[in-house]
Amino acid sequence: MSASHLLTPISLHKRPAAVQAHTADAPGPRVYIETFGCQMNEYDTELLRALLKKRGFHFTAIGTEADVVLFNTCAIRENAHNRLYGHLAEFKRAKQERGVVIGVLGCMAQNLKKDLLAERPFIDVLVGPDGYRRLPDLLTDALEFRKRGMAVDLSESETYDDIVPDRTEGINGWIAVMRGCDNFCSFCVVPYTRGRERSRDPKGVLDEARRLADQGVRQITLLGQNVNSYHYDDWDFAKLLVSVADINGIQRVRFTSPHPKDFPPALIEAVAQHPHICRHIHLPLQSGNDRILERMGRCYTQSDYLRLVDAIQQTGPITLTTDVICGFCGETEEEFQDTFHVMQAVEFQSAFVFKYSERKHTIAARKYPDDVPDPVKGERTNRILEWQKQISAKKNRSLYGQSVEVLVEGHSKKSETQLMGHTESNVTVVWDQSDTPCPVGSLVPVIVDEASASTLFGHPVHSGRRFKPVQ
Known about the structure:
Layout: H1 3-6, H2 17-25, E1 30-35, H3 39-54, E2 58-59, E3 68-73, H4 78-98, E4 101-106, H5 107-111, H6 113-119, E5 125-127, H7 135-145, E6 149-151, E7 172-176, E8 178-179, H8 190-193, E9 198-199, H9 202-214, E10 219-223, E11 231-232, E12 235-236, H10 237-245, E13 252-256, H11 265-273, E14 280-282, H12 290-296, H13 302-314, E15 319-326, H14 333-346, E16 350-355, H15 363-367, H16 374-397, E17 403-411, E18 418-422, E19 428-432, E20 443-451, E21 455-460
Parallel strand pairs: 1-2, 1-3, 3-4, 4-5, 5-6, 7-10, 10-13, 14-15, 15-16, 19-21
Antiparallel strand pairs: 8-9, 11-12, 17-18, 17-20, 18-19, 20-21
């Protein structure tokens, strides 16, 4: 069955009661948005909120109160797919009982549109990352006329540069400086879900950063699928990064993710020298074996990667974190050992480690069999995770008794009597509240008392109270 057939309008005798009630008693339909995946998706949700608010939609944090339920999705990992299918099943009954409009947005809508429409016919709206401007009209048609619709065309120019994202309050802000990707790594769907690279006008990026600073944001993360490919007239990413870091009120700037194949010296120098750019680089490895790297289409070798690491470390104390994929197509135990050896040589602060999961429409899915057994993938993943846990714990324990500068973000998740924040290296720090002032958004020195693989525990420099774990 074709996608166009599945988008045939459905006529009902009357509009849903929830929508009728809003027409009479309230200013507009209530929308519930759930976001999966990366910071880019979080940023896109802020764009979506701005577009919908402008058209009279309102928002609720309670899905059972919504007239419209939207899922902004990720297509990178299998787990994100499974979570979406589970949530869709939960809201299927709400659609049957209350006529709730259900929309799937983002990368899965782009990559799996035919499958989603065929397997989940109760979905009303599908919108890819380049079609967000059409969402208000599609939702209006779905609410008023029970008409299905989708916007899944890729764009060569869309950057949403004129949209001011609708943000929740907080000290952290994200700015997408570019969209799409030209790398075509064989395992990745991003070029097919977000299109080719388009860099934003630096004026728009800087205006957005100044607005964030005026709103009280103290840390900005610049986003892109490959940020060091950013290029606009005579602006490269290093120039943009420094310009954002120079804005009054911004205390920290981060970025994610760069690609090891084209990491310019100017970017390393900016990270090492600018006082407001965090001395932390997330540098995806993916594999430490040359044959697997070639199959992945990564455009660097193990020795290239290690030379880059050496160049970074020679500039000063810059923390490195990474991504690793275990069990890529055809990976042998010996080839996996090459990855393990790179992990041992570099000793990253932390690592995101994943089992390879085949994504539809990628080069790998078309070219290579997914032939590493799942138990082997799992065992290799666990081996690296256990190693990384030991290294992270060792690095954190080495800070015992030392002062670390922390950006205060608010109360910890476990207790209202504790505060939390992150170091420049992006390590979580937790401490008991004391008489020492620690306003949200301020940089405070904290003495490390205890440490785990993921968290430092301590007390502010001017407080004599050591950290006491919550019982």
